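Whether sequence alone determines local backbone shape is best considered at the level of individual chains. The sequence in question and its structure tokens are set out directly beneath this paragraph.

***
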Amino acid sequence: MSSTRLVEMVRHFGRDQDPLVRQRLADIVIHSRVAAYTNQRAMAKIRAGQLPGPEMSIAKLSLTNNMTRISEFVAQVLGPRLVADTGEWGTYAWSEFVLGTPGLRIAGGTDEVMKNIVGERVLGLPKEPPGPDGR
């Protein structure tokens, strides 16, 4: 998701002078850049013939968290225009993105599984104890 499109949307709807909107937009840009650097680190390992470590799990978590941030931000800026097809530029087209975001939290491994991988492989936390059935 391009931050340029978000800036265009904010300007189009006259929200570019709202300090809260600008702060949330800056937060999205910062988190997106951090995610891009994490992806670059993983790809550099792959190009060097190494297997990526937990970077891919961290990248997946970053992606879904950033998409959630963007969805919430778009809903804040557009309000009811998000679901009402008025034909106005930059409104209804976002609804597909917003509605698809929760599904990505499951696709490619749930966020909870990714958090377990990061906790065990990066932070060195112990594995979860087995349940009553021994698994």
